[in-house]
Structure prediction request, 119 residues.
Amino acid sequence: MSLAERLIALERDGWDALVAGEGGRHYRQHLSDDALMAFPFGVLTREATIEAMESAPAWERFAIADPRVVALSDDSGVVVYDVVAQRPGEEPYSAVVSTTFVRDGGAWKVAFHQQSPKA
Prediction:
């Protein structure tokens, strides 16, 4: 599997966990120790991200479009894509997303994630 295929699959795994209501558990395993996540409301540390995911309602569905990968090295890369996701009873959320992955001890971890909402 190429680096691009691997990182896109990892990103989809994260969304699948959020749909299953398992975002906190998933990201507890897959965030680097110093990870940051930048959302429209602010920047969260690793622990704050996990707490937020554990208390947030699950997403009902998501669709990733036009995923692209920028390889930074053999052990790091950035996935950039459009997403439309929806929680039950809410309007769809549309954003441009980027996630930076690093390989840490053989495991891929999210080091940085950013969501930029689309109008």
